[in-house]
Amino acid sequence: MRSIFHLITLVLSINLMAENKAVQTHDSCNIIFEDSISKCDLDSVILEAKSGFSDYEWDNGSTSRLRWVKETDWYYITAENSQGDTCRDSVFVEINESRELRYDLNKSPYLCKGDSIVVELNDGFLSYWWNTGHRGDRAVLYPSSDQTVVVEALDSNGCEARIEFKIFVDDCDSCDLLPEEIIKCADSVVIEAENGFEVYEWYDGTRGRIRWVDESGWYKLDAEDSNGNLCTDSVYVDLNSGKELRIWSNPSPAELCIGDSIVIELSGGFREYWWSTGHRSDRAVLYPTGDTVVVIEAVDSNGCETRREFEIEVDSCTAAIMEDPFDGALRFYPNPVKNHLHLSVKSKHIAEQTLKIYNVYGKKVLEYQITFGDQTIDLSTLTNTMFFIKIGPYGRTLLKG
To answer: Where in the chain is the domain with CATH 2.60.40.10?
Structure first.
């Protein structure tokens, strides 16, 4: 069988989206015409084998000369000519997310004439270009009128990112009408300006000293006194929904015998924790003597509070099942399960027990009284994830999805 060279030519079809793709060849037969091809803003790549062969077969079984791919992976093809000679080649397709360009301002974008403003960009780019003439990731601007700032940046893959934002300049005097910043753990907030002015007008034309808002962002206010003097102020409103407090336990589910201990760990990112058990950190070891509900509250860096309750079940275990029921006395199927879990119970002793299902956080989501024989449990109300199914001290993992 003689070797065949110059088999495959890659043609990249570009479907524009905000992602970066790179295609690199693997010289298994040294037959790819380029060592590497890198493109930006791609959604997919079409691999096209060289024409002139009677049969083509890709690693997924496809027999077409063309193949459309959108995943990072190696792709292999085998081609055969009319004389029965074959050769195999491969190409590595790499898909990368393009980097996002972001900016931060040291103050409100609503300025009075003569004011300056500092703009900082996130790092991770090789070069920056500003329409203001700057070339770094930081600039101090002194706009004399309304200005749209455009910044373009180039990352290490040669891909460009672009942002633009507007700075507003008024012929005004700045004053302290509003607080510097409002941070709330809520869906909305009321902004209240200082008293003592005749007219209050917000940036969007609405009037009034008090304003209700439900979005994070900058809010600018002009105020005019009885003598016609005008001053301007602005406030940044940051509305937070609060950080999620997650709980893990060992053992999980939280079912113990008297005398056993349980370790509870909380998710990080909070500045303080409060437990009904008296603990004050993100981890605690408990020795409960009876069924217990542990209440945990946490405060994040924005001052937002969150609260969780965690149930621990404690049994004397004197009447526990002597043998693991899952080893033969009870069978459950299918696993993974979609909506209905089937049980086949062969022991009347098992039929006196309670089956409990817990989520990965140790919370009991379902309880079922087992009967003798075949039966079905409806799980359609549970989300598609991993659960733990337990009978007494014994348990198994159950997947739903």
So the answer is: 103-170, 173-239, 247-315
Please name every residue paired with 289 in a beta bridge, in sequence order, or none if there are none.
none
Domain 103-170 sits in CATH 3.10.20.810: no
Which DSSP string do the residues of 261-293 spell out, in sequence order?
A: -EEEEE-S-EEEEEETTS--SSEEEE--SS-EE
For 189, 198, 221, 230, the CA distances from 205, given in Å and listed in that order, are 19, 16, 10, 15
Contact 36, 27 (CB under 8 A): no
Q: Determine the Cα–Cα distance for residues 371 and 353; give it in Å rounded to an integer.
A: 8
pLDDT, block means (10 residues), the chain with 401 residues: 36 34 42 52 74 83 83 83 80 76 89 88 92 93 93 86 91 81 86 92 91 90 87 88 86 82 90 93 90 92 88 73 75 90 84 83 84 90 87 82 81
Q: Which residue has the tokens 């103050």?
A: 107
